[in-house]
Amino acid sequence: MERVAGNEAAASLRLVTVVFEWRGAVDDAEIEALHAEAFGHEPTAFDWRSQLERHSLGWVCARDDDGLVGFVNVPWDGARHAFLVDTIVAARARHRGVGTRLVALAVEGARAAGCAWLHVDFEPELLPFYLEAAGFRPTPAGLIRL
Ligand SMILES: CC(C)(COP(=O)(O)OP(=O)(O)OC[C@H]1O[C@@H](n2cnc3c(N)ncnc32)[C@H](O)[C@@H]1OP(=O)(O)O)[C@@H](O)C(=O)NCCC(=O)NCCS
User: Fold this and answer.
1) Residue 63 domain-assigned?
2) Which residue, 33, 46, 68, 125, has most beta carbons within 10 Å?
């Protein structure tokens, strides 16, 4: 677990501490609320915990005093390849480096587990986040919508 202090909006001058944790305790409703806000849908009863426990190498949670503000899931193939999905930061906590730190800790977790590659795909508008801030390099890749 690690703590990072950053300045909240200058207007409030509140010092906000964000705590990051690999495989941190989290419940379904917390993740679903973040996901719903980020992707513009109504919250559902999706069973995130089962998905994480059954299919993920790990995940990273970011929390401040008011709750979960960031999450990223790291499923894998059980050997050398891990994947980044559902990188999410709450709207109230964006542009303070939380997303970049979530990815950095996912990289550390995957490397520590012996993975050689961490994959991600994303919409073109997120190029500055993944390629410039988070350290991914571009590569030819393919995707089929099922
Ligand atoms: C993408 C996301 C996780 C970034 O989280 P964040 O905590 O704001 O990211 P950071 O503060 O670490 O951003 C670092 C830099 O990445 C770039 N960046 C961040 N968010 C970006 C976005 N939405 N689009 C383009 N570039 C972005 C910026 O250059 C930013 O620097 P700046 O704050 O000085 O402008 C967040 O915007 C989010 O949750 N979006 C909705 C969900 C989503 O689309 N997730 C990705 C699924 S593939």
Assistant:
1) yes
2) 68
Structural domains in the chain (count): 1
Q: Which residues line ligand 1 (CB under 6 A)?
A: 38, 87-89, 94-100, 122, 125-126, 128-129, 133
Question: How many Cβ atoms from other residues are within 10 Å of residue 26's Cβ?
Answer: 19
Tell me how far the alpha carbon of residue 95 lies from the centroid of ligand 1, in angstroms: 6
**Among 100, 122, 91, 85, which residue's Cα sits nearest to residue 4?**
100
| CA 120 to ligand 1 center in whole angstroms | 14
Tens of pLDDT, residue by residue over 74-129, are: 999 999 999 999 999 999 999 999 999 999 999 999 999 999 999 999 999 999 99
Full residue range of the structural domain in which residue 28 is found: 2-133
67: domain CATH number is 3.40.630.30
pTM: 0.93
Residue 32 lies in a domain: yes
- Report how far ligand 1's centroid is from the alpha carbon of 97 (Å): 8
Distance CA 106, CA 108 (A): 5
In a domain, 75, yes or no: yes
